[in-house]
Amino acid sequence: MSESTTERRFVAEDVETELKQFLEKSTKTSWESDTDLFADGGVSSMFAMELVVHIERSFGLAIEGPDLRIDNFRTVNDMTALVLRLTGSDAGE
Amino acid sequence: MSDDLPGLISAEVGDRAAAWDLAGTIPVEVLRRLGAAGALCAEVPAEYGGPGLSSRRNGELTAHAGTLCSSLRSVMTSQGMAAWTIQRFGTRRQRAEALPRLTRGDLAAVAFSEPQAGSDLSAIATTVKDDGDTVVLNGHKVWSTAAGYADLLVVFGRYQDGAAAVLVPTTTPGVTVRPVPQPLGCRAAGHADVLLEDVRLPAAQVLSGTGQSLPLLTTLALTYGRMSVAWGCVGIIRSCLRAAAAHARDREQFGKPLAEHQLIARHLAELLVAEQTATRVCEHAAGCWDDRSPELSTAAVLAKHVAAGHAARSAATAVQVLASAGSVDGEPVARAYRDAKLMQIIEGSEEICQLILAERALEGAV
Which residues form the signal peptide (chain A) (predicted)? Predict the structure, then answer.
C-alpha cells in the first residue's frame, strides 16, 4: 500500500456507478446515493476498511490523515466527493 | 541501512532469547540498534527513512524473528503498528516528523486495551479533550506491548464526537508506565500498563484531526498487527517443527529413533501441515495487502486466526515430542508453548476472529 496519486480525472457519474457496483456486490444490497451506510443495520468497521482500500485501488489514490474521517465514507455522494477532490477532478477544466 | 535485515536480527538475538525470556527483558540497546536499521517497522517507506519492504517481505522478516524470539517479534509488531497508524492517520507533517524517528532508533508502542475495554474496544474510556491549542489525556491503558521500552505511545481515545490516536512521548508529565509483572508469554516484550493523568500535549500531537470513527481507526491499526502476529506465529511453528524433527531424528527409544515410532511421525507430519498451512494463509493476506485488495481486512483476520491456532497446537505437540527435554523454562519449545497461547488472545482473540469470520460467511463474502 505505497502512496501513489495518479493524474487521472473522473466524472461524478462514473465514480458513483463504480462505488454502487462495489457496494452491491459486497453487501448484496443496493444503496441510494444519499443513504448512510453506517447507520443502524448498515455495514461493519471491517467493511469500512474494505471501502477505503477499494477506493484507493480503483481510483489510484491514497486516503490518509484527516481524509480518513468517517464522514467522507457515509454515503455514495460523500465518497464520490472525496474521490473527485483527491484526484483533482473537481477543479474544473 | 542494512540490506540483510534477517542476518542482522539473527546476529542481535544470537543464543540469548532464552536468557531474555528468563530475565523478562531484552537489552534496550539491542532494540535501538534494530530500530535504527529499520528492522522493527520495515514497511516504512524510504522517504521516511524506512526499508520500504512489501508486506510479503516484511512478513518473512517477521517470521524469521518469530523463529528466534517471540518477545522481539512482539516489539516489531508494536513498532510496526505504531508506524502504520502514523502513516495512515498522520498529516503529511506528522508523518514527516514522527516516522523517521521510528527508523532511527526511537521505540514506539500502541495503547488500545483498558480495564473495561479488551475485545470490546468500543468501551474505550480514555479521553482526549481540547484545551486551547493543547489537548489533555486521561485514562488507563493495560497490556500495551513494548510500552515498557517505548519513547512514544500511540494512544487511542475518545475525542470530540469520535475518536483519535494521539502521539504521547512517555516522558510527558502525567504518563506512568508500569510493567506487567511476569506475563505468561512473550515475557521480554515489555508489556506494560499505562496511566495517563492530565497529560497535556500540543494539539498537533493528535493524529488525523477530528471526526475519526473509533472502529475504523482501530480496525486499520489492528490489521497491521494481525498480519504481524500471524507471521510471528509462522515463526513459532517453524521453530517447533525444527526442534521436534531434530529431537525425533536424534533421540532413540526402544532401540530406534523416535521418528521411526509412528505416533511420533504423525506429530511431525502435523507440524509440517501446520507450517505450510499457516505460511500459505499469511502469504495470501500479504498478497492482498501488497495488491491493495479490499479483501485484506478479512484475509488478515483469517491469517491471524489460522496461524495462532496452529502455533498453539504446534507448540503443545513439540513439547510432547521433546518431553522432558522441552520442559525446561527458556527452551525454544517451552517458550513457544507459553508465547503461542498469548497469540490466541492478542490482536483479536480466537473468539473475536471467529465472530468476524462468521459475519463474512453470512454476508456470502466467499
Answer: none
Q: Following DSSP, what letter does each residue of A17-38 receive, concatenated? A: HHHHHHHHHHHSS---TT--TT
pTM: 0.94
State the distance between the two ends of chain A, measured CA to CA, in whole angstroms.
30
CA distance B118 to B84: 21
- Interface A–B counts its CB contacts (< 8 A) at 99
Search chain B and give the residue with CA nearest A56: B292
Rounded to whole angstroms, the Cα distance separating B166 from B196 reads: 12
Q: Residue holding cell 489460522?
A: B306
Mutation target to probe the A interface, by most A beta carbons within 10 A, among B218, B219, B222 is B219
Spatial separation of the C-alpha atoms in residues B318 and B20, rounded to whole Å: 21
Tens-place pLDDT, residues B279-330: 999 999 999 999 999 999 999 999 999 999 999 999 999 999 999 999 998 8
Nearest residue on chain A to B91, judged by CA atoms? A65
Q: Angle at CA B348, nearest 5°, toward A27 and B143?
A: 145
Domain at A12-86, CATH from 1.10.1200.10, 3.30.750.210, 3.20.20.60, 3.30.750.24 = 1.10.1200.10
Within 74-93 of A, beta carbons closer than 8 Å to B belong to: none
Side-chain half-sphere exposure of B125, counting CA atoms within 13 A: 10
> Complex ipTM, two decimals?
0.85
The phi, psi pair for B131, rounded to 5°, reads -150, 90
Element (DSSP H or E) covering residue A52: helix A45-59
